[in-house]
Specification:
- There is one protein chain.
- It contains 14 helices and 16 strands.
- Helix 1 crosses helix 3 and helix 6 crosses helix 14.
- The protein has a 5-stranded mixed β-sheet with strand order 6-5-4-7-11, sandwiched between helices. It has a 5-stranded mixed β-sheet with strand order 14-13-12-15-16, with helices on both faces. It has a 3-stranded antiparallel β-sheet with strand order 1-3-2.
- The two termini are 15 Å apart.
- The chain is an alpha/beta fold and 406 residues long.
Protein backbone atom coordinates (compact mmCIF):
# COMPACT_ATOMS: atom_id res chain seq x y z
CA UNK A 1 0.00 0.00 0.00
CA UNK A 2 1.30 3.44 -0.90
CA UNK A 3 2.04 5.32 2.29
CA UNK A 4 -0.28 8.16 3.20
CA UNK A 5 -2.86 7.74 0.44
CA UNK A 6 -6.24 6.12 0.03
CA UNK A 7 -6.21 6.04 -3.79
CA UNK A 8 -6.19 2.26 -3.72
CA UNK A 9 -9.61 2.31 -2.01
CA UNK A 10 -11.39 4.39 -4.63
CA UNK A 11 -13.56 1.50 -5.80
CA UNK A 12 -16.93 1.77 -4.07
CA UNK A 13 -17.48 -1.99 -4.14
CA UNK A 14 -14.08 -2.60 -2.60
CA UNK A 15 -14.87 -0.12 0.15
CA UNK A 16 -18.23 -1.79 0.80
CA UNK A 17 -16.55 -5.18 1.15
CA UNK A 18 -13.83 -3.86 3.44
CA UNK A 19 -16.31 -2.08 5.70
CA UNK A 20 -18.52 -5.19 5.86
CA UNK A 21 -15.53 -7.25 7.00
CA UNK A 22 -14.79 -4.58 9.62
CA UNK A 23 -18.33 -4.54 11.02
CA UNK A 24 -19.27 -8.22 10.61
CA UNK A 25 -16.00 -10.16 10.69
CA UNK A 26 -15.17 -12.98 10.97
CA UNK A 27 -17.22 -13.42 7.80
CA UNK A 28 -17.02 -15.79 4.85
CA UNK A 29 -16.75 -14.82 1.20
CA UNK A 30 -20.16 -16.37 0.54
CA UNK A 31 -21.77 -14.33 3.31
CA UNK A 32 -20.05 -11.20 2.00
CA UNK A 33 -21.59 -11.78 -1.42
CA UNK A 34 -25.01 -12.37 0.12
CA UNK A 35 -24.91 -9.30 2.37
CA UNK A 36 -23.44 -6.90 -0.19
CA UNK A 37 -25.45 -8.30 -3.13
CA UNK A 38 -22.25 -8.50 -5.16
CA UNK A 39 -21.41 -11.54 -7.27
CA UNK A 40 -19.13 -14.19 -5.73
CA UNK A 41 -16.44 -13.61 -8.41
CA UNK A 42 -16.47 -9.86 -7.67
CA UNK A 43 -16.18 -10.48 -3.93
CA UNK A 44 -13.41 -13.03 -4.51
CA UNK A 45 -11.39 -10.64 -6.66
CA UNK A 46 -11.61 -7.75 -4.21
CA UNK A 47 -10.91 -9.97 -1.21
CA UNK A 48 -7.74 -11.21 -2.93
CA UNK A 49 -6.63 -7.60 -3.45
CA UNK A 50 -7.33 -6.76 0.18
CA UNK A 51 -5.35 -9.78 1.37
CA UNK A 52 -2.47 -8.96 -0.97
CA UNK A 53 -2.44 -5.39 0.40
CA UNK A 54 -2.27 -6.76 3.94
CA UNK A 55 -5.38 -5.13 5.33
CA UNK A 56 -7.49 -8.32 5.41
CA UNK A 57 -6.39 -11.76 6.53
CA UNK A 58 -7.90 -15.20 6.61
CA UNK A 59 -8.87 -16.40 10.06
CA UNK A 60 -10.53 -19.52 11.42
CA UNK A 61 -12.86 -21.88 9.60
CA UNK A 62 -16.56 -21.18 9.89
CA UNK A 63 -19.52 -23.50 10.30
CA UNK A 64 -20.27 -25.78 7.37
CA UNK A 65 -23.50 -25.19 5.49
CA UNK A 66 -23.41 -28.65 3.93
CA UNK A 67 -20.02 -28.56 2.23
CA UNK A 68 -16.52 -27.61 3.25
CA UNK A 69 -16.11 -25.25 6.16
CA UNK A 70 -15.64 -21.71 4.80
CA UNK A 71 -12.52 -19.69 5.52
CA UNK A 72 -13.42 -16.62 7.56
CA UNK A 73 -12.08 -13.13 6.90
CA UNK A 74 -11.11 -10.45 9.42
CA UNK A 75 -9.38 -7.05 9.37
CA UNK A 76 -5.62 -7.32 9.91
CA UNK A 77 -5.74 -4.58 12.55
CA UNK A 78 -2.02 -4.61 13.30
CA UNK A 79 -0.98 -4.15 9.68
CA UNK A 80 -1.41 -0.36 9.61
CA UNK A 81 -1.35 2.47 12.13
CA UNK A 82 -2.76 5.94 12.78
CA UNK A 83 -1.33 8.90 14.66
CA UNK A 84 -4.05 10.64 16.66
CA UNK A 85 -3.57 14.11 18.13
CA UNK A 86 -5.64 16.06 20.66
CA UNK A 87 -4.49 19.68 20.42
CA UNK A 88 -5.93 21.39 23.48
CA UNK A 89 -5.36 24.75 25.06
CA UNK A 90 -2.65 23.64 27.52
CA UNK A 91 -1.23 20.42 26.09
CA UNK A 92 -0.99 18.47 22.85
CA UNK A 93 -1.51 14.72 23.34
CA UNK A 94 -0.32 12.15 20.79
CA UNK A 95 -1.15 8.47 20.33
CA UNK A 96 -0.26 5.72 17.90
CA UNK A 97 -3.13 3.29 17.34
CA UNK A 98 -3.86 0.27 15.20
CA UNK A 99 -6.88 -0.08 12.92
CA UNK A 100 -9.04 -1.25 15.84
CA UNK A 101 -8.35 1.93 17.75
CA UNK A 102 -6.10 0.18 20.26
CA UNK A 103 -3.53 2.66 21.58
CA UNK A 104 0.04 1.39 21.29
CA UNK A 105 2.02 4.45 22.31
CA UNK A 106 1.24 7.86 23.80
CA UNK A 107 3.04 11.08 24.68
CA UNK A 108 2.30 14.71 25.50
CA UNK A 109 3.73 18.19 24.99
CA UNK A 110 2.96 21.28 27.08
CA UNK A 111 1.87 24.54 25.49
CA UNK A 112 3.23 27.67 27.13
CA UNK A 113 1.11 30.83 27.52
CA UNK A 114 1.35 33.47 24.78
CA UNK A 115 2.52 30.91 22.23
CA UNK A 116 2.94 32.01 18.61
CA UNK A 117 1.57 30.30 15.54
CA UNK A 118 5.01 29.07 14.47
CA UNK A 119 5.79 27.83 17.98
CA UNK A 120 2.53 25.89 18.04
CA UNK A 121 3.30 24.25 14.69
CA UNK A 122 6.83 23.42 15.83
CA UNK A 123 5.59 21.68 18.99
CA UNK A 124 2.91 19.86 17.00
CA UNK A 125 5.48 18.57 14.51
CA UNK A 126 8.00 17.61 17.21
CA UNK A 127 5.45 15.40 18.95
CA UNK A 128 4.43 13.66 15.74
CA UNK A 129 8.07 13.19 14.74
CA UNK A 130 8.84 11.66 18.16
CA UNK A 131 5.86 9.31 17.84
CA UNK A 132 7.17 8.08 14.50
CA UNK A 133 10.75 7.76 15.78
CA UNK A 134 9.82 5.75 18.86
CA UNK A 135 7.97 3.29 16.63
CA UNK A 136 10.41 2.74 13.74
CA UNK A 137 8.95 -0.66 12.81
CA UNK A 138 5.54 0.94 12.27
CA UNK A 139 6.68 4.09 10.47
CA UNK A 140 6.12 2.90 6.91
CA UNK A 141 2.69 1.52 7.79
CA UNK A 142 1.24 4.73 9.22
CA UNK A 143 -1.70 5.67 7.00
CA UNK A 144 -2.25 9.18 8.27
CA UNK A 145 -2.63 11.72 11.06
CA UNK A 146 -5.91 12.75 12.70
CA UNK A 147 -5.99 16.08 14.54
CA UNK A 148 -8.70 17.08 17.01
CA UNK A 149 -8.22 20.84 17.44
CA UNK A 150 -10.03 23.09 19.88
CA UNK A 151 -11.71 26.14 18.40
CA UNK A 152 -13.07 26.83 14.92
CA UNK A 153 -11.70 24.64 12.13
CA UNK A 154 -12.07 24.74 8.34
CA UNK A 155 -12.16 21.01 7.67
CA UNK A 156 -11.81 21.34 3.90
CA UNK A 157 -8.51 23.20 4.01
CA UNK A 158 -7.42 21.74 7.35
CA UNK A 159 -6.94 25.21 8.81
CA UNK A 160 -7.43 26.20 12.45
CA UNK A 161 -9.35 29.44 11.97
CA UNK A 162 -9.54 30.53 15.60
CA UNK A 163 -8.30 29.04 18.88
CA UNK A 164 -9.90 31.17 21.61
CA UNK A 165 -7.83 29.77 24.47
CA UNK A 166 -4.53 30.32 22.63
CA UNK A 167 -5.55 33.47 20.80
CA UNK A 168 -4.25 32.15 17.45
CA UNK A 169 -5.85 32.40 14.01
CA UNK A 170 -5.42 30.84 10.57
CA UNK A 171 -2.97 28.04 11.39
CA UNK A 172 -2.41 25.96 8.20
CA UNK A 173 -2.13 22.64 10.03
CA UNK A 174 -2.99 20.27 7.17
CA UNK A 175 -0.68 21.96 4.65
CA UNK A 176 2.24 22.10 7.09
CA UNK A 177 1.92 18.50 8.33
CA UNK A 178 1.36 16.93 4.91
CA UNK A 179 4.42 18.74 3.59
CA UNK A 180 6.49 17.65 6.60
CA UNK A 181 5.44 14.00 6.89
CA UNK A 182 3.98 13.06 3.48
CA UNK A 183 0.94 11.56 5.16
CA UNK A 184 -2.78 12.22 4.81
CA UNK A 185 -3.89 14.66 7.51
CA UNK A 186 -7.49 15.09 8.70
CA UNK A 187 -8.29 17.96 11.07
CA UNK A 188 -11.53 18.53 12.95
CA UNK A 189 -12.90 20.56 15.83
CA UNK A 190 -12.29 18.62 19.05
CA UNK A 191 -15.95 18.28 20.07
CA UNK A 192 -16.97 17.09 16.61
CA UNK A 193 -14.07 14.65 16.56
CA UNK A 194 -15.24 13.35 19.94
CA UNK A 195 -18.74 12.84 18.50
CA UNK A 196 -17.35 10.87 15.58
CA UNK A 197 -15.29 8.75 17.97
CA UNK A 198 -18.36 8.00 20.07
CA UNK A 199 -20.32 7.01 16.97
CA UNK A 200 -17.43 4.92 15.61
CA UNK A 201 -16.43 3.10 18.80
CA UNK A 202 -19.48 1.55 20.32
CA UNK A 203 -22.56 3.76 20.09
CA UNK A 204 -23.92 2.30 16.87
CA UNK A 205 -27.44 2.08 18.32
CA UNK A 206 -27.63 5.89 18.38
CA UNK A 207 -25.05 6.85 15.77
CA UNK A 208 -27.82 8.00 13.42
CA UNK A 209 -28.83 10.77 15.85
CA UNK A 210 -26.37 11.56 18.60
CA UNK A 211 -24.66 14.55 20.17
CA UNK A 212 -21.37 14.65 22.07
CA UNK A 213 -20.72 17.63 24.34
CA UNK A 214 -17.18 18.43 25.47
CA UNK A 215 -17.07 20.53 28.67
CA UNK A 216 -13.61 21.56 29.81
CA UNK A 217 -11.88 24.92 29.58
CA UNK A 218 -14.46 25.65 26.89
CA UNK A 219 -17.71 24.06 25.75
CA UNK A 220 -18.36 22.53 22.35
CA UNK A 221 -20.56 19.91 20.76
CA UNK A 222 -20.49 17.55 17.83
CA UNK A 223 -23.69 16.41 16.14
CA UNK A 224 -24.00 13.13 14.26
CA UNK A 225 -26.98 12.87 11.89
CA UNK A 226 -27.48 9.79 9.75
CA UNK A 227 -24.09 8.53 10.90
CA UNK A 228 -22.26 11.63 9.60
CA UNK A 229 -20.93 14.70 11.35
CA UNK A 230 -22.95 17.83 10.83
CA UNK A 231 -20.80 20.91 10.15
CA UNK A 232 -23.28 23.61 9.19
CA UNK A 233 -22.88 26.13 6.41
CA UNK A 234 -19.69 27.70 7.78
CA UNK A 235 -18.16 24.96 9.94
CA UNK A 236 -19.37 26.42 13.25
CA UNK A 237 -22.14 23.93 14.05
CA UNK A 238 -21.75 22.76 17.63
CA UNK A 239 -20.28 25.95 19.12
CA UNK A 240 -22.78 25.71 21.98
CA UNK A 241 -20.38 27.27 24.45
CA UNK A 242 -21.33 30.60 22.89
CA UNK A 243 -25.06 30.09 23.31
CA UNK A 244 -26.31 33.09 25.31
CA UNK A 245 -27.82 32.05 28.65
CA UNK A 246 -27.67 35.34 30.57
CA UNK A 247 -27.79 38.68 28.73
CA UNK A 248 -26.29 40.40 31.78
CA UNK A 249 -23.74 37.71 32.54
CA UNK A 250 -19.95 37.56 32.42
CA UNK A 251 -18.12 38.70 29.30
CA UNK A 252 -16.96 35.67 27.30
CA UNK A 253 -13.72 35.28 25.35
CA UNK A 254 -15.81 35.72 22.21
CA UNK A 255 -16.84 39.22 23.39
CA UNK A 256 -20.48 38.44 24.12
CA UNK A 257 -22.06 38.34 27.56
CA UNK A 258 -23.55 35.38 29.39
CA UNK A 259 -22.37 32.57 27.10
CA UNK A 260 -22.90 29.03 28.43
CA UNK A 261 -19.11 28.71 28.57
CA UNK A 262 -18.91 31.51 31.17
CA UNK A 263 -21.11 29.45 33.50
CA UNK A 264 -20.27 25.75 33.14
CA UNK A 265 -16.62 25.53 31.99
CA UNK A 266 -13.79 24.58 34.34
CA UNK A 267 -12.51 28.17 34.70
CA UNK A 268 -16.09 29.39 35.33
CA UNK A 269 -16.51 26.84 38.13
CA UNK A 270 -13.22 27.95 39.67
CA UNK A 271 -14.24 31.62 39.47
CA UNK A 272 -17.52 30.97 41.31
CA UNK A 273 -15.63 28.99 43.96
CA UNK A 274 -13.16 31.85 44.49
CA UNK A 275 -16.06 34.27 44.91
CA UNK A 276 -17.66 31.93 47.46
CA UNK A 277 -14.41 31.69 49.41
CA UNK A 278 -14.01 35.47 49.41
CA UNK A 279 -17.56 35.97 50.64
CA UNK A 280 -17.62 33.22 53.28
CA UNK A 281 -13.92 32.65 54.06
CA UNK A 282 -14.65 28.99 53.51
CA UNK A 283 -11.73 27.02 54.96
CA UNK A 284 -12.02 23.40 53.74
CA UNK A 285 -11.66 24.44 50.09
CA UNK A 286 -8.73 26.66 51.03
CA UNK A 287 -7.07 23.76 52.83
CA UNK A 288 -6.67 21.97 49.51
CA UNK A 289 -4.68 24.86 48.07
CA UNK A 290 -2.69 25.75 51.20
CA UNK A 291 -4.75 28.93 51.66
CA UNK A 292 -3.64 30.24 48.24
CA UNK A 293 -6.93 31.31 46.68
CA UNK A 294 -5.26 31.75 43.30
CA UNK A 295 -4.65 28.01 43.07
CA UNK A 296 -8.35 27.11 43.09
CA UNK A 297 -9.32 25.31 39.86
CA UNK A 298 -12.25 23.27 38.66
CA UNK A 299 -10.35 20.17 39.77
CA UNK A 300 -9.95 21.64 43.26
CA UNK A 301 -13.69 22.24 43.51
CA UNK A 302 -14.36 18.65 42.48
CA UNK A 303 -11.90 17.30 45.07
CA UNK A 304 -13.49 19.43 47.77
CA UNK A 305 -16.96 18.25 46.79
CA UNK A 306 -15.84 14.63 47.04
CA UNK A 307 -14.60 15.37 50.55
CA UNK A 308 -18.03 16.68 51.50
CA UNK A 309 -17.53 20.43 51.07
CA UNK A 310 -21.10 21.74 50.80
CA UNK A 311 -20.28 24.94 48.90
CA UNK A 312 -18.32 22.96 46.28
CA UNK A 313 -21.18 20.48 45.96
CA UNK A 314 -23.63 23.34 45.48
CA UNK A 315 -21.45 24.97 42.80
CA UNK A 316 -21.22 21.70 40.84
CA UNK A 317 -24.94 21.02 41.16
CA UNK A 318 -25.69 24.53 39.90
CA UNK A 319 -23.30 23.87 37.02
CA UNK A 320 -25.26 20.73 36.16
CA UNK A 321 -28.55 22.65 36.20
CA UNK A 322 -27.23 25.38 33.87
CA UNK A 323 -25.68 22.81 31.56
CA UNK A 324 -29.02 20.98 31.55
CA UNK A 325 -30.75 24.20 30.44
CA UNK A 326 -28.27 24.53 27.59
CA UNK A 327 -28.77 20.89 26.60
CA UNK A 328 -32.55 21.35 26.66
CA UNK A 329 -32.14 24.11 24.08
CA UNK A 330 -30.16 21.69 21.93
CA UNK A 331 -32.77 18.97 22.35
CA UNK A 332 -35.42 21.37 21.08
CA UNK A 333 -33.27 22.25 18.06
CA UNK A 334 -31.63 18.93 17.12
CA UNK A 335 -33.66 16.29 19.00
CA UNK A 336 -30.84 13.71 19.38
CA UNK A 337 -31.49 10.21 20.71
CA UNK A 338 -28.54 10.45 23.08
CA UNK A 339 -26.21 13.11 24.48
CA UNK A 340 -22.74 11.99 25.56
CA UNK A 341 -20.72 14.21 27.87
CA UNK A 342 -16.93 14.38 27.92
CA UNK A 343 -14.18 16.78 28.96
CA UNK A 344 -12.73 17.64 32.35
CA UNK A 345 -15.98 18.88 33.89
CA UNK A 346 -17.71 15.57 33.08
CA UNK A 347 -15.45 13.88 35.64
CA UNK A 348 -17.69 15.44 38.27
CA UNK A 349 -20.58 13.36 36.94
CA UNK A 350 -21.75 12.25 40.39
CA UNK A 351 -22.58 15.91 41.13
CA UNK A 352 -23.67 17.27 37.74
CA UNK A 353 -25.44 14.41 35.95
CA UNK A 354 -28.62 14.25 38.02
CA UNK A 355 -29.15 18.05 37.95
CA UNK A 356 -28.67 17.92 34.17
CA UNK A 357 -31.33 15.23 33.84
CA UNK A 358 -33.70 17.06 36.17
CA UNK A 359 -33.31 20.30 34.19
CA UNK A 360 -34.18 18.46 30.99
CA UNK A 361 -37.11 16.70 32.69
CA UNK A 362 -38.53 20.03 33.87
CA UNK A 363 -37.99 22.01 30.66
CA UNK A 364 -38.23 19.73 27.62
CA UNK A 365 -41.43 20.08 25.62
CA UNK A 366 -42.58 16.47 25.17
CA UNK A 367 -42.45 13.28 27.27
CA UNK A 368 -40.03 11.65 24.83
CA UNK A 369 -37.79 14.70 24.77
CA UNK A 370 -37.74 14.70 28.58
CA UNK A 371 -36.34 11.15 28.45
CA UNK A 372 -33.42 11.98 26.13
CA UNK A 373 -30.51 9.88 27.35
CA UNK A 374 -27.60 11.82 28.84
CA UNK A 375 -24.54 9.73 29.69
CA UNK A 376 -20.83 10.17 30.38
CA UNK A 377 -18.38 9.01 27.73
CA UNK A 378 -16.95 5.56 28.30
CA UNK A 379 -13.61 6.71 26.85
CA UNK A 380 -12.74 8.98 29.78
CA UNK A 381 -9.83 11.31 29.10
CA UNK A 382 -9.24 9.60 25.74
CA UNK A 383 -12.62 10.61 24.27
CA UNK A 384 -11.17 13.30 22.01
CA UNK A 385 -8.13 11.20 21.09
CA UNK A 386 -10.50 8.39 20.06
CA UNK A 387 -12.18 10.91 17.81
CA UNK A 388 -8.89 11.91 16.19
CA UNK A 389 -8.28 8.23 15.40
CA UNK A 390 -11.82 7.87 14.02
CA UNK A 391 -11.18 10.71 11.54
CA UNK A 392 -8.70 8.48 9.71
CA UNK A 393 -10.63 5.25 10.21
CA UNK A 394 -13.72 6.75 8.59
CA UNK A 395 -11.75 8.01 5.60
CA UNK A 396 -9.89 4.69 5.35
CA UNK A 397 -12.75 2.22 5.72
CA UNK A 398 -15.68 4.22 4.45
CA UNK A 399 -14.54 6.97 2.05
CA UNK A 400 -17.92 7.26 0.34
CA UNK A 401 -19.49 8.12 3.68
CA UNK A 402 -16.66 10.29 4.92
CA UNK A 403 -17.13 14.05 4.93
CA UNK A 404 -13.62 14.45 3.63
CA UNK A 405 -12.09 13.92 0.26
CA UNK A 406 -9.19 11.49 0.32
Amino acid sequence: MQRGTFKWMKSLNKSIILNKIRTSGPISRAQLAKDTKLTPPTVGAFVKELIDEGIVKESTLGESQGGRKPTMLVINSSAFYIIGVDAGSQTIDYVLSDLSGNIIDRSSRELLPAITKNEFLSILKDGIRATLQTNPNNKDNVIGIGIAMHGVVDVNTGTSLFTPNLGLTDIPIKVELEKEFELIVKIENDARAMALGEAWFGHTETSDSMMAVNVGRGVGAGVVIGGKLYHGANDIAGEIGHMTIDLNGEVCQCGNRGCLQTIVSGPAIAKRAIQAVQEHQHSSLLDLVDNDIGKITGKTVYRAAKEGDLISVQILEETGTMLGIGLTNLIHIMNPRKIILGGGVSRANEFILEPIRQAIEHRALTPKAKRTKVVITSHGDDATLSGSIALLLEAFFDPERSYYES
